[in-house]
Amino acid sequence: MASPQASRPGTEPVDDIDDVHEWISFGDSTEDRTWMIDATYMRSNHRCIYGEGCQGILDDDATEMAQGCCSYGAHFVDDDDVQNVVRAFTRLDAEVMQFHAKAVKKGFLAAGEDADGGTPVTTTRLVDDACIFLNRPGFPAG
């Protein structure tokens, strides 16, 4: 007989340790919501659809902007997270990254708004109101 706890959604024991996910949550008091981010997915090498059919994360449907979740840039968890992206950036060039020249000239990191604790967060820089790493529709590399 299964325990009562095991029958509730989200409480089943994990058989495959590779299926464990780390979640990050943060509150947005200006909009009375809590954001839940799957850090395991975000740090993985899985491919996002980059707005292909996604309504985006703005308050209203923004499908036509083709930004997906890139409207605010990436918000980094910690310095290790930043360094992973810095290392990945060194492997990119203008052939695969639309705004590579802008990233080289002015950088791709920005200081975001202060977190609730007063500590500024590091984000990716925005170009034309979306993450600098987002290749826009029509860019040959996708």
Describe the structure.
The chain is built from three helices and six strands; from the N terminus they run ββαααββββ. The chain is 15% helix and 19% strand. The radius of gyration is 18 Å and the shape is globular. The chain is of the alpha+beta class and 142 residues long. It has one domain. A two-stranded antiparallel ribbon has the order 1-2. Strand 5 and strand 6 form a beta hairpin.
- Which class of secondary structure composition applies to the elements? alpha+beta
Strand content: 15-25%
Count the DSSP helices: 3
Number of strands: 6
Spans where pLDDT lies below 50 across 5 or more residues:
1-8
Q: How many structural domains can be distinguished in the coordinates?
A: 1
N- and C-termini, Cα separation = 51 Å
Brief synopsis:
With 142 residues, this protein is α+β, with helices and mostly antiparallel strands.
Give me the secondary-structure topology.
Layout (H helix, E strand, L loop, with lengths): L22 E6 L4 E6 H4 L36 H11 L10 H7 L2 E6 L5 E5 L1 E2 L2 E2 L11
Antiparallel strand pairs: 1-2, 3-4, 5-6
List keywords for this structure.
alpha+beta; 15% helix; globular; disordered N terminus
